[in-house]
C-alpha cells in the first residue's frame, strides 16, 4: 500500500517473514538447514543498532500509553537475538517429513483446537527458543514449502474466519504473508489481493507465485489500486475484508539506519492514522451487509489502533464491533495480550519466550443501513 505524497516515505519495510523451501528428499537434520554463510548472515542481522531518536520517541509515548508494561516490551523490541519466527506450512507443497523435522527441533503447533475458528489445513509451528530457519530465493515454477513469519500475523486471519466460497479482499496485501495464511485456511469464491505501491505490488505477486499453484493462482486477482478507491469501484462486493494497514512498524523503525529519515518518519507519523481511517471507510463501502472486516497493524500506537477504530465506530452507523476475546483466551499460552483493550480488539505484546507482536487486531461487522 503506497502512502499519499510525501507520506510515502513512512511506509515500513517487510512486516512479516520470508519464505523458505528446504531441499526435498531424505529426512533432514537441524544442522542441514543452516550453512555457515547463512549463520554468519543471521548473526550480522542481530548486531544492528537501535536508533536512539526512535527509541526516545517510543519511550515517551509508550511509557504513557502502556505504563509499566512498556519496559518489558522495550527489552524484547530492542534485542533482536530473542526474536522468534513461526513456520507456516504450505498445504500446496510441503514435504511429508517437514513436520517431523520441526518437532525434532522443539517446534509445536501454535494454535489449539479450542479456537473458535481453526481450519485443519492451517498448520503453523512455533518454538520457545529464539532463532529462524534460513530463507531461500524465489525460483520460478517451484513452490516453497513454508513461510517464516511473526506468529501474531496469523491472528488477524483467524479473526476474519474465512469460509470456502466467500468473496475476500486483502486490501493492503504486500508482502503477501496474510494472503498466504488466508489460502491455507479456505478456498475463497473470489480472492482479491491489492497493493498500491508498485515495488511492493511486484513483491506481493512474487510471493503468491512462490506458494500458490496453478490453477488456483489464476483464480486470484492481484491488483495495484489505491485502496481508498476500492469501495467506490466495488461497492458491497466482498463477504470478508482484511485491512492490514500501513503503520509505524515498531520493530523496523527502532532499527532505522538513517537518523534524518527516522526523524522525518516520526514527524509525519500522525498522517498514518488519517490514511488508515480512509482505508477503513473504503473497505466498509466494499463490504456486503452482514460481512466482516478485520483491521490490523504491527504497532503499539494507540493513535493508529484503538483511536482509528473508535473514530470509525463513531462516524459509521452501519458497522458494529465484534467480540473476539475468545481468541485471546484460546491462545493465551503462546501470546501475551495487553489487558486494557475492549472486547472487539486485541493487542499482542512481545515478551521474552513469547516474542510475538506487536500486533493489533480489531473486528467489525457491517449491518444493513437504516
TrEMBL record:
GO terms for cellular component: mitochondrial large ribosomal subunit. Transmembrane segments: none annotated. It is found in: Mitochondrion. Residues 77-367 form the SAM-dependent MTase RsmB/NOP-type domain. GO terms for molecular function: RNA binding; tRNA (cytidine-5-)-methyltransferase activity. CDD domains: AdoMet_MTases. It comes from the Eukaryota. Keywords: Methyltransferase, Mitochondrion, RNA-binding, S-adenosyl-L-methionine, Transferase. S-adenosyl-L-methionine binds at residues 172-178, 195, 226, 244. Coiled coil: none annotated. The active site is at 298 (nucleophile). One of its GO terms (biological process) is tRNA wobble base cytosine methylation. Belongs to the class I-like SAM-binding methyltransferase superfamily. RsmB/NOP family. This is NOP2/Sun RNA methyltransferase 3. It comes from Coturnix japonica. The lineage of its organism: Eukaryota, Metazoa, Chordata, Craniata, Vertebrata.
